[in-house]
Fold this sequence. Notes:
The complex is a heterodimer of chains A (about 325) and B (about 550).
Chain A: E1 2-6, H1 18-34, E2 39-42, H2 56-66, E3 72-78, H3 84-97, E4 102-107, H4 112-117, H5 125-140, E5 144-147, E6 150-153, E7 166-170, H6 173-182, E8 186-188, H7 193-206, E9 223-226, H8 230-254, H9 268-274, E10 278-281, H10 283-293, E11 296-298, H11 307-321
Parallel strand pairs in A: 1-2, 1-11, 2-3, 3-4, 4-7, 7-8, 9-10
Antiparallel strand pairs in A: 5-6
Helix pairs in contact in A: 1-2, 2-3, 3-5, 6-7, 8-9, 10-11
Chain B: E1 3-12, H1 16-27, E2 32-35, H2 43-47, E3 52-53, H3 58-62, H4 69-80, H5 86-107, E4 111-113, E5 134-137, E6 140-141, H6 166-174, H7 180-189, E7 192-193, H8 195-209, E8 213-215, E9 220-226, E10 229-237, E11 240-252, H9 261-268, E12 274-275, H10 284-290, E13 296-298, E14 308-318, E15 321-326, E16 334-338, H11 350-356, E17 372-376, H12 378-383, E18 401-403, H13 406-413, H14 417-433, H15 445-451, E19 470-474, E20 476-479, E21 485-487, E22 494-496, E23 502-508, H16 526-544
Parallel strand pairs in B: 1-2, 1-11, 2-8, 11-23, 12-20
Antiparallel strand pairs in B: 3-5, 4-5, 6-7, 9-10, 10-11, 13-21, 14-15, 14-20, 16-17, 17-19, 18-19, 22-23
Amino acid sequence: xxxxxxxxxxxxxxxxxxxEQYAAALDMVKWGESVGAINALFCQHHASADGYxxxxxxxxxxAASQTRTLPITVGALLLLMYDPVKLAEDIxxxxxxxxxxxxxxxxxxxxxAEYAMFGVDPGQRGKQMExxxxxxxxxLKGEAFEWRGRAIDVRPRPRTANAAMLGxxxxxxxxxxxxxxxxMPFMPQSADPALQAxxxxxxxxxxxxxxxxxxxxxxxxxxxxxxxxxxxxxxEIGPYLLHDAMVYSEWLDAVGAGASTYSGAKSVEALRAENxxxxxxxxxxxxxxxxxxxxxxxxxxxxxxxPALAWRSLKLIEEQVLPAVRR
Amino acid sequence: MNWYAIVDVxxxxxxxxxxxxxxxxxDAGANVLVVEKDSKVGGVTGIxxxxxxxxxxxxxEKAGIADSRAETLEYLEHLSxxxxxxxxxxxxxxxxxxxxxxxxxRIGIPFEVVEKYPDYYYPALKSxxxxxxxxxxxxxxxxxxxxxxxxxxxxxxGHHYAYSMSGEWVRHQDGSGPRxxxxxxxxxxxxxxCAGAGLAAWLLKAALDRGVxxxxxxxxxxxxxxxxxxxxxxVRSGGxxxxxxARRGVLLATSGYDWNKEMVTRYEALPEAGTMCPPTVTGxxxxxxxEVGAIPYAARSPAQNSVFVGYRVPGELxxxxxxxxxxxxxxxxxxxxxxxxxRFANDSFYPDVATKVARFDGQEEGMPNWPxxxxxxxxxxxxxxxxPFFPGQELAEGMAQSAATLEELAALTGIDxxxxxxxxxxxNGHCETGVDPDFGRGTVPWGALMTxxxxxxxxxxxxxxxxxxxHAVKLERVVMGTPSTGLxxxxxxxxxxxxxxxxxxxxxxxxxxxxxxxGGGYNSGISNTRGLLQGFVAARDMLRKGGxxxxxL
Lengths: 327, 553
């Protein structure tokens, strides 16, 4: 029905403080559980001037403490920015704390500033990912083993067996093959059938189930807002959405990553005209979108939208959208 | 569980229901697997006329045809004869329109109105229409399917079922278009698939374009259940059982049970019946769903009109089995009689024949109109033919009994000779005026369109039996994937178990679902529409239970 995403970008023009945003997000997670949301996602990036969340496990932990049943996802979990053994310990602890509700979509990352900050050699990142995935999954499976001369024995062992909380995400054939050959659920960054085919081929070759991916379709609005007066809403929150879009496109342009579900818009008008990932719709249109896709992708604080504005869309969804759809 | 594949939606069967669900779900990003027991995609939809019946459509409005939701519901209510559920009937009309619009506008399948194609019960019912409620797809050029063209079903009963459109037949009959044989030859030469073959091809193309996976020659054999919820199914490929996890649901769209003799005998009350459906149609849905507490529901009386009449064609093998063909009666120079040699129905309108052959007489403790025979003279054979034989061709040996006189024909068949002679004499007399005071032959526009000869001025369905030799073809009952009994479903096409509760994760569409929406009644084209809409609503309901955050960059 609803998914909630939080990354805590805070555009310079936002009147909100980061503390207010974190607190509001926890309220929104509680609200989400009360209205039947299916997932809350916490994202990760580093060294972003707008304060993008670098420590998603902390927020996931806080969210877990505020809720009882809501599934929580950390994605992309940029594995190379961690010591995989320490990360395994944190995941194991959070697994117990949350009652097994937190899962992870591991990703490689792409920003050189992040690699530099954590001493990752971008030329070796694929190899390092394989190594780190081995370590993380063995540790979470409760194995005792040796790695780089270190004796590893992660305790407590997680509640969730077989490291089943780990998935893999990415937008390349290599990512699809990595996930398939490891039998990890895959979250492709685009609805490209070639990624699915690559996953299936690698999975079948390794004797893993084919088809274990979750694809977000082309044209699905991933940052959706609902407003009765759409024009006014664009005036109010459009600049925040544009900030989010522009920083992402700057990051992607820097590494020449073209294929993106995100926008190349340089003005609010252009962003609105795209009618793409960032969308503001009426309650009736939101009901139709749920009919078509089964759920809405919400990103309530996108770009640093302050709480009062963010709640306006959420309340409208609660009052005028959810009552009109089957639960 | 050792999963062989994990998908969002598993469709069992690839007719209208399975394909509509697959398209709808895949269009919303779901990962869809369709398993098909046959070696080809398309199911019973693919061998059907491809007609989709629906009233009050935007397509009809665009064609300038006046119709409304209220009239459509009224027509269907009459068909229901008190056996239909009014809420589900509204779902049929409202969501049926929605799925047609979805497939046309969003998916790009070119449905069009078959103009001047009347409802069965026009003008018998005020709510019946002279045209505008039949929809069909434009021809599909098979090469657009690439390697899948050969894996998409085309009827095994001859080109005329798959390479001409209903609209082309109308224009052939009323003289406004080319002769049907010329049209057919052209479609065949270009491999332009029409009717059910065309509908299946359009749907398959749309599904493939959206990344739907198909496993052919792969029946589902058992549902996999966890805590009362269907979470997948075991399918059998090359003799190997494989477990498929379906995260959002399993759709049973396996048509009826035509080739399950016990089910046909018990549910249809028919000791013997043939079918034109592929031998894969064996009631698998009823078996699998029984294991999760669903029981078969009969939606109509077996006496109602969706069990057809037909005949055998000795020597003709279809699906490797002796063939049956359905008969649309009403060809000039022919009548249908019982063993007393009497006509007993409007024998130019199959629903009347199909219901009256099933009549049971309490005094005789028997069926007065069964067995029955199609009796015709040599004019019919020469001018109109009897499929698979074209006008002028000899019939297959043993297909008909033939004799120089009606008395001899009666002796050969066991029909009462005096009765037959009197009946033919009386019928021939009516042919002079073109008025059949006994059964109103030729008065139903649908029957006249289907089997009439418009060049006959007085009555398109009436011409006398005069030219020896005379022929009699013994009729058979023929089921067509249009069963009386199926799984009970709600407005979301969720299967309802014997306790009246929805089985989580399990859906049924098309002829696998009991016709509880419209109850007893039938008008051709309803089954395809029901398949499309139940597949569509099932997929939409399954989507509701999934959803996933998108991975940010």
